[in-house]
Amino acid sequence: xxxxxxxxxxxxxxxxxxxTTEAIMHATYRALCEHGYPDTTISSIVAEFDxxxxxxxxxxxxxxxxxxxxxxxxxxxxxxxxNEEMTGDPYETLVGLVDRILPEQLDDDQLRFxxxxxxxxxxxPHSTAYHDLIEQNDxxxxxxxxxxxxxxVESGQFRSVDPERTADFIHSVLIGTMERGATLDDxxxxxxxxxxxxxxxxxxxxxxxxxxx
Amino acid sequence: xxxxxxxxxxxxxxxxxxxTTEAIMHATYRALCEHGYPDTTISSIVAEFDxxxxxxxxxxxxxxxxxxxxxxxxxxxxxxxxNEEMTGDPYETLVGLVDRILPEQLDDDQLRFxxxxxxxxxxxPHSTAYHDLIEQNDxxxxxxxxxxxxxxVESGQFRSVDPERTADFIHSVLIGTMERGATLDDxxxxxxxxxxxxxxxxxxxxxxxxxxx
Lengths: 213, 213
Prior knowledge:
The structure is a homodimer.
Chain A: H1 2-10, H2 18-39, H3 42-47, H4 53-59, H5 63-85, H6 90-101, H7 108-122, H8 128-155, H9 163-183, H10 187-205
């Protein structure tokens, strides 16, 4: 929860309504889906913005300033969703996490947004702000994966694997699948690798008695 | 081999010596390590070039033209290396492939080059030339992983897994580890995930009698 608190605190210094924030973030999402990271400009975001243009220019000096806030906003939403979903049965929760990252169906906007996400990630070595937010994002996923595996091991539903190492391995295969699928516009790879990951979880984590195959 | 042939055929239309090609490619590598993809320009590559500047301007119209040739050059080298290494013992060959992609030690230039590589990969959705070369690169790795696993299954050294599905899973974990480690400048993650992948290969692929643990 401390991360969410920190995100809220850093969400811009000039006050604005939640509704304005939502509208700005939605316009940013649309612009990124449409143009990708290098060709997204403040003007292309303004073009997607259905409120006063001046409002957006008032809040942000440049594109990277706005995209940093956008990453914070996504991180906050991701954390809220994950906190809501993390209390159930460990196996179901783990499958739910895989489902969130590699959904069975992915529409054009979702795929294009993932492409923009990897473009932004690739900029982390050149920007401390991006680097820190990507790091928080990855740490959040890593710690949730570790927690759910830990809970499953403690309850006896999972084999006694090393939760952190196993989480790290699953984390890499999720990121690798997302990156490959987004880069090459390959939804079939998402579906194929989603099955591999679920099968790995069944075979490697589930105790024999609860294994589905 | 047909891929290598195609790469050679498409390596520029204006004739130049191998030595010049090597020098141009080396300068491109240096510029990418130093500036990353967005800030690499033809001038920044020229600054790393120790031959006549005009030579470089003569061969290339813009940065993406040059980077496309650079990707072709890397692909050709990757294919030559892989062809040399793919004939030995399946287990050793597979470990060798992991070693090539997640080496135990990674110097600063190697890490920076991987960062630039993921920046270029992220541009694939915006450029047919990048898309096709990244696709050829991934298909090459995918087919070599599949072949070596197939050989291991046929010789009885590996369990009778589905070679293509298993290759796809290992491929994703390798790309995911490379991406995470490069994006967050995290060499420790490379070392950790390298161990996970090797352990996965031992546990999941090796027949009980030949397993190392």
